[in-house]
Design goal:
The protein is an alpha/beta fold. The protein contains eleven helices and 14 strands. The protein is elongated. It binds alpha-L-rhamnopyranose (RAM).
Length: 345
């Protein structure tokens, strides 16, 4: 390989990746080993490709991946676009394919747009693990799902219903418009609201693009457009923290409820000062850790991603691949004033 050190710094890796790509023709074949779809069972070079860099959620998930890779003696790197766009991810996939990495762990910005690049990577023997946000199931080897989508949707609807007395107008502040994870959760939230909460009206779904400032501005706009809004659900750690920051110093603090998916470290102040009552998430570090062990098992050929395949995931124990090549991490967890001090991520 190209001698990337463990925990290669992002900027250095990105710069190196570009220069290596220019001279690396043929390297994938030399390093990719056993031909189409085969891969090299000893090539434990695993690169994390999040939706975007600079998001505390992915800093934590990818650190979990780095810890796992250090445990089993592989080589960790992280690369990714500055904003959550599929185009940005495609160029990284192409470069990593040319470099002949063993596996890429991707949180996908689009269900379809990455699939051609992923197909070329897999043809060259690179294993593809999606985590957090999936592509279409037939374009990757395995998806590491943070929790069942139904459970993630329900916990957010239950929380907002509880916080607004099960009645009134609510809006959703989401991530990017093409995000498979948020879009799946939004559809299920809509269904749950319609079936079980007849007095809650979902008036709008807006997109902050997993960008802090855009999410902040979209929150302000929502509150201006719907002065009688009772609550906001933000199923993204970037959105919920930006919305909380807006509410904290506004006239709406304590009047408009905010819940969704957040990290305890980003939400701690807002929970402690009453801007937010409760929100949910899973442990992103465990998600990345599990994705790294799944990548190892694929590279070593102990699993192919077929339903029923079993693999060892270090401290997390043993996991079994379910339907559609999906591995489930566990259940989401609710954070509030009573427990938030117990968490540090
Ligand atoms: C943001 C991203 C990520 C999502 C979390 C909840 O960090 O959109 O994909 O899973 O929020």
């Amino acid at each position: 390989m190209f001698g990337f050190t463990k925990k290669a710094r992002v900027g250095a890796f990105a710069a190196l990746a570009v220069s290596v790509a220019l001279v690396a023709t043929g390297c994938a074949a030399a390093d990719g080993g056993s031909g189409e779809g085969g891969g090299d069972a000893g090539n434990l070079s695993i690169t994390f490709l999040p939706k975007n860099l600079g998001n505390a959620y992915f800093d934590t998930s990818d650190k979990g991946g780095a810890d796992a890779i250090a445990e089993f003696g592989g080589t960790y790197a992280e690369v990714g676009p500055a904003t959550g766009s599929p185009d940005g991810q495609v160029s990284y996939i192409n470069t990593l394919t040319q470099q002949g990495v063993g596996a890429i762990a991707i949180s996908a910005n689009d269900p379809d747009a990455l699939c051609d690049a992923i197909g070329e990577a897999r043809d060259a023997g690179v294993k593809i693990v999606t985590f957090d946000a999936d592509t279409n199931p037939d374009c990757r080897d395995i998806f590491i799902n943070q929790a069942e989508s139904e459970g993630i949707a329900k916990i957010q609807v239950d929380l907002i219903a509880e916080q607004i007395g099960d009645a009134g107008k609510v809006a959703i502040l989401s991530a990017t418009a093409n995000a498979t994870n948020q879009n799946a959760w939004i559809e299920l939230m809509k269904a749950d609201l319609a079936a079980n909460h007849p007095n809650i009206e979902l008036v709008d779904v807006v997109y902050g693009d997993d960008d802090d400032q855009t999410s902040f501005d979209k929150t302000a706009a929502l509150l201006q457009t719907y002065p009688d809004l009772k609550g906001i659900i933000s199923p993204t750690t970037v959105g919920i923290s930006a919305a909380a920051r807006y509410l904290q110093t506004s006239e709406f603090k304590g009047k408009v409820a905010l819940t969704g998916l957040g990290t305890p470290n980003q939400m701690r102040d807002y929970v402690n000062d009453g801007t937010v009552t409760a929100f949910a998430l899973w442990n992103p570090a465990d998600l990345g850790y599990l994705a790294a062990y799944a990548a190892k098992a694929l590279i070593e050929g102990t699993i192919t991603g077929a339903e029923g395949d079993k693999f060892d995931a270090g401290n997390l124990g043993s996991y079994t691949v379910g339907k559609d090549g999906t591995v489930l991490l566990g259940d989401p967890y609710t954070f509030n004033k009573d427990n938030i001090a117990d968490f540090n991520f």
